Amino acid sequence: MTSYGAIAKYLGSAQSSRMVGWAMNNSSRIKPKVPAHRVVNRNGMLTGKHFFGANDAMQHLLEKEGIKVSDDKIIDFKKHFWDPSVELML
């Protein structure tokens, strides 16, 4: 799990989290598939859920991976958070 802001920061444009969201929205056309359902807002909210078709599709994908979601928010988000700035030190 990561956030739009964490990806934007890693890319060197911390103020561009909205652009990351648009990129995630358009990623459904890319092969191999991009796991866009794993990108949420900085609080762990499923803010992009309406781009996955059915209203609960994003939650369903996360729950299939063992992530618990309640009221459109990831439970223990900090525990699951993946920070590209730390993990991908290039």
Task: Tell me briefly what this model is.
The chain is mainly α. The protein is built from five helices and four strands, in the order βααβαββαα.
Termini Cα gap: 20 Å
Within CATH, the superfamily carries the name Winged helix-like DNA-binding domain superfamily/Winged helix DNA-binding domain
Question: Roughly what percent helix?
Answer: 25-40%
Cα-atom Rg, whole angstroms?
A: 13 Å
How many beta strands in the DSSP annotation?
A: 4
- Provide the CATH architecture: Orthogonal Bundle
Quickly count the helices. Answer: 5
Instruction: Quickly give the structural class.
Output: mainly alpha
Q: For this structure, what is the CATH class?
A: Mainly Alpha
Mean pLDDT: 90
Q: Mind summarizing the main beta sheet?
A: 2 strands, parallel
Under CATH, the topology can be stated as Arc Repressor Mutant, subunit A
* Contiguous uncertain segments of 5+ residues: none
The total tally of domains equals 1
How do the strands line up in the largest sheet?
Answer: 1-2
Silhouette:
globular
Order of helices and strands: EHHEHEEHH
Strand content: 5-15%
Can you put this structure into words, describing what you see?
The chain has about 90 residues and is mainly alpha-helical. It has one domain (about 1-85): Arc Repressor Mutant, subunit A, CATH 1.10.10. Helix content is about 35%, strand content about 10%. It contains five helices and four strands. A hairpin with a 2-residue loop joins strand 3 (about 70) and strand 4 (about 75). The protein is globular and about 35 Å long. The two termini are about 20 Å apart. About 25% of the residues are buried. The model has no long low-confidence stretch (mean pLDDT about 90).
